[in-house]
């Protein structure tokens, strides 16, 4: 437990972290990768180039300082990060490395303002935070083992590779050892580790499981990421699409993630997806069917048009076979073929007025996932409608962003 003096010192640094937090985390990652280049095999270097990881860490450090006297309020944040750490293979013995470089980065950025008193207080606070994360991650490892899972990574064979749209392909992964796979919660993801051609470091990416549970295989559905914002095409997604073939081996960690479908709630379920954000929601919808759940389920999917709408036949099959399932499709720019086939329910974007027309009630459990602008728009719609915060569930692909603060400002 931290004493009151340490808590007061940490809280006094909140305004500084608000102003210089991202500068500190940029210096931290630069320093850590220089001192420990082997960690480039663990951390997503694309997120580093986009500064997304630096911003996400700065946000965590800021909120940890702000709530240092009530760390229990960060439970949700801790859970999400712990799942990611366990999934990519962060180990307890790496926490001192992080602490050493974080404190050095604070000194580097703040200069003389980073007094010995402040550095010592942050060293103590970091030690407490590290204990919390290590404890949570160890508990997750034990839970995986109890369900017949594995620690670290194990080899999987690509049993099938199925194109789902112009940009999304599904990979059916079977364990090389042939053992039955542990169960997972719908909405969870896998970490996939590969060594793409001409890459100096191994690359790890998270991909949502996109099917209901089977003891024989896991399925992920991967979007081939086109380069934008001055960045090249997605390293791993391009490698999986173009180079990995049926029969090849990839290394996979056990399922992880806290964005999961709660079938214990009696409320109706509403799934809202944008683009490749449909992957975890496909797992949710198919699990709902597999388990014979009693809640009504409505699935709304938004895509540019039918050519990039993946897994739509699975969605339509659920619609045909279940009286308590409804699906709606929104195309931003439908093709002539989409129009001829009457393949969509709305042109343009999902908005609150239309949501109120197609949904019977706002008293439901809402799950949504998709690109960042889509996420902000849906979140804002739900808040304006008066949906309870406790009934709003979402996941970002990549480091978490502050949805709540940005859309309600």
TrEMBL record:
<feature type="domain" description="Globin">
    <location>
        <begin position="1"/>
        <end position="138"/>
    </location>
</feature>
<comment type="similarity">
    <text>Belongs to the globin family. Two-domain flavohemoproteins subfamily.</text>
</comment>
<dbReference type="GO" id="GO:0009636">
    <property type="term" value="P:response to toxic substance"/>
</dbReference>
<feature type="binding site">
    <location>
        <begin position="275"/>
        <end position="280"/>
    </location>
    <ligand>
        <name>NADP(+)</name>
    </ligand>
</feature>
<dbReference type="InterPro" id="IPR001433">
    <property type="entry name" value="OxRdtase_FAD/NAD-bd"/>
</dbReference>
<feature type="binding site">
    <location>
        <begin position="396"/>
        <end position="399"/>
    </location>
    <ligand>
        <name>FAD</name>
    </ligand>
</feature>
<feature type="binding site" description="proximal binding residue">
    <location>
        <position position="85"/>
    </location>
    <ligand>
        <name>heme b</name>
    </ligand>
</feature>
<feature type="active site" description="Charge relay system">
    <location>
        <position position="95"/>
    </location>
</feature>
<comment type="function">
    <text>Is involved in NO detoxification in an aerobic process, termed nitric oxide dioxygenase (NOD) reaction that utilizes O(2) and NAD(P)H to convert NO to nitrate, which protects the bacterium from various noxious nitrogen compounds. Therefore, plays a central role in the inducible response to nitrosative stress.</text>
</comment>
<comment type="similarity">
    <text>In the C-terminal section; belongs to the flavoprotein pyridine nucleotide cytochrome reductase family.</text>
</comment>
<keyword id="KW-0216">Detoxification</keyword>
<keyword id="KW-0521">NADP</keyword>
<feature type="binding site">
    <location>
        <begin position="205"/>
        <end position="208"/>
    </location>
    <ligand>
        <name>FAD</name>
    </ligand>
</feature>
<keyword id="KW-0813">Transport</keyword>
<feature type="site" description="Influences the redox potential of the prosthetic heme and FAD groups">
    <location>
        <position position="395"/>
    </location>
</feature>
<keyword id="KW-0274">FAD</keyword>
<dbReference type="GO" id="GO:0071949">
    <property type="term" value="F:FAD binding"/>
</dbReference>
<dbReference type="GO" id="GO:0071500">
    <property type="term" value="P:cellular response to nitrosative stress"/>
</dbReference>
<dbReference type="GO" id="GO:0008941">
    <property type="term" value="F:nitric oxide dioxygenase NAD(P)H activity"/>
</dbReference>
<keyword id="KW-0479">Metal-binding</keyword>
<feature type="binding site">
    <location>
        <position position="189"/>
    </location>
    <ligand>
        <name>FAD</name>
    </ligand>
</feature>
<protein>
    <recommendedName>
        <fullName>Flavohemoprotein</fullName>
        <ecNumber>1.14.12.17</ecNumber>
    </recommendedName>
</protein>
<dbReference type="Pfam" id="PF00042">
    <property type="entry name" value="Globin"/>
</dbReference>
<dbReference type="Pfam" id="PF00175">
    <property type="entry name" value="NAD_binding_1"/>
</dbReference>
<feature type="domain" description="FAD-binding FR-type">
    <location>
        <begin position="151"/>
        <end position="262"/>
    </location>
</feature>
<keyword id="KW-0520">NAD</keyword>
<dbReference type="InterPro" id="IPR009050">
    <property type="entry name" value="Globin-like_sf"/>
</dbReference>
<feature type="site" description="Influences the redox potential of the prosthetic heme and FAD groups">
    <location>
        <position position="84"/>
    </location>
</feature>
<feature type="site" description="Involved in heme-bound ligand stabilization and O-O bond activation">
    <location>
        <position position="29"/>
    </location>
</feature>
<feature type="region of interest" description="Reductase">
    <location>
        <begin position="148"/>
        <end position="409"/>
    </location>
</feature>
<dbReference type="GO" id="GO:0020037">
    <property type="term" value="F:heme binding"/>
</dbReference>
<dbReference type="InterPro" id="IPR023950">
    <property type="entry name" value="Hmp"/>
</dbReference>
<dbReference type="InterPro" id="IPR012292">
    <property type="entry name" value="Globin/Proto"/>
</dbReference>
<dbReference type="GO" id="GO:0005344">
    <property type="term" value="F:oxygen carrier activity"/>
</dbReference>
<feature type="active site" description="Charge relay system">
    <location>
        <position position="137"/>
    </location>
</feature>
<keyword id="KW-0560">Oxidoreductase</keyword>
<keyword id="KW-0561">Oxygen transport</keyword>
<dbReference type="GO" id="GO:0046872">
    <property type="term" value="F:metal ion binding"/>
</dbReference>
<dbReference type="GO" id="GO:0046210">
    <property type="term" value="P:nitric oxide catabolic process"/>
</dbReference>
<dbReference type="GO" id="GO:0019825">
    <property type="term" value="F:oxygen binding"/>
</dbReference>
<dbReference type="InterPro" id="IPR039261">
    <property type="entry name" value="FNR_nucleotide-bd"/>
</dbReference>
<keyword id="KW-0285">Flavoprotein</keyword>
């Amino acid at each position: 437990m931290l004493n009151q003096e340490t808590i007061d010192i940490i809280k006094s640094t909140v305004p500084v972290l608000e102003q210089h937090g991202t500068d500190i985390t940029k210096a931290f990652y630069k320093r850590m990768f220089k001192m420990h280049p082997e960690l480039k095999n663990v951390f997503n270097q694309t997120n580093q180039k986009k500064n997304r990881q630096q911003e996400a860490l700065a946000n965590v450090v800021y909120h940890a300082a702000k709530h240092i006297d009530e760390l229990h309020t960060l439970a949700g944040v801790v859970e999400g990060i712990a799942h990611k750490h366990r999934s990519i293979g962060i180990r307890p013995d790496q926490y001192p490395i992080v602490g050493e470089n974080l404190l050095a980065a604070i000194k580097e950025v703040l200069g003389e303002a980073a007094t010995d008193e402040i550095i010592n207080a942050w060293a103590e606070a970091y030690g407490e935070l590290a204990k919390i994360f290590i404890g949570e991650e160890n508990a997750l490892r034990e839970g995986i083992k109890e369900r017949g899972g594995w620690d670290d990574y194990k080899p999987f064979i690509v049993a099938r590779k199925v194109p789902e749209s112009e940009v999304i392909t599904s990979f059916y992964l079977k364990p090389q050892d042939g053992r039955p796979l542990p169960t997972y919660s719908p909405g969870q993801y896998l970490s996939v580790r590969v060594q793409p051609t001409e890459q100096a470091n191994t690359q790890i990416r998270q991909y949502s499981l996109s099917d209901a549970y089977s003891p024989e295989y896991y399925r992920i559905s991967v979007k081939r990421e086109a380069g934008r914002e001055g960045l090249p095409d997605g390293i791993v997604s391009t490698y999986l699409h173009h180079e990995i073939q049926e029969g090849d081996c990839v290394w996979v960690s056990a399922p992880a993630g806290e964005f999961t479908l709660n079938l214990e709630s009696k409320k109706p379920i509403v799934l809202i997806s944008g683009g490749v954000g449909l992957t975890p929601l496909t797992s949710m919808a198919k699990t709902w069917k597999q388990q014979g759940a009693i809640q009504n389920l409505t699935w709304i999917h938004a895509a540019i048009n039918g050519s990039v709408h993946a897994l739509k036949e699975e969605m339509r099959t659920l619609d045909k076979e279940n009286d308590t399932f409804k699906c709606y499709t929104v195309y931003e720019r439908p093709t002539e073929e989409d129009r001829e086939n009457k393949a969509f329910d709305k042109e343009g974007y999902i908005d609150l007025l239309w949501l109120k027309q197609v949904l019977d009630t706002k008293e439901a459990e809402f799950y949504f996932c998709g690109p960042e602008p889509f996420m902000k728009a849906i979140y804002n719609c739900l808040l304006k409608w008066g949906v309870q915060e406790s009934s709003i569930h979402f996941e970002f692909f990549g480091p978490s962003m502050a949805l709540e603060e940005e859309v309600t400002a």
